[in-house]
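FORM 7B: Structural annotation worksheet

SECTION A. Query
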Amino acid sequence: MINNLTKEQAGVTRDTISKLLFKKMFAWIVDKINVSISNGYDTKKAKGSNFTGILDIFGFEIFDTNSFEQLCINFANEKLQCQFNSHMFTMEQKEYKKEKVPWENIKFVDNQGCIDVIESYATLSIFRLLDENCTMNRKDE
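SECTION B. Predicted structure
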């Protein structure tokens, strides 16, 4: 059956199908990788077998209007990036120095300032302002 959709409805339907296809294809690819590196074992059946997880971080997404949910997604991405930077750059370079491995210092952008702007309770941050605003504007029943 063919439905007559408005332009907006057709756009929403297109986007929904695209997201579903991406999700299914991504899961299929990860499953194929997991099976191939676990020597052909089905990772869903074989407990304790090797597997690879893939974290897909897009970074900050900018919309005309951002929601609280998008702020939380962006914040989680920044925290993950900070952890990655700390592990991959700071800790690895300390290990190189300790083991006297020849290397050149790797410079990277530390995003802790961005995280502090969002979550720090020691300074005026976005989460602190939201928390205070929600507390002050709460209607007591």
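SECTION C. Observations
Residues 1-54 form one domain. The radius of gyration is 22 Å.

SECTION D. Sign-off
Analyst initials: ____
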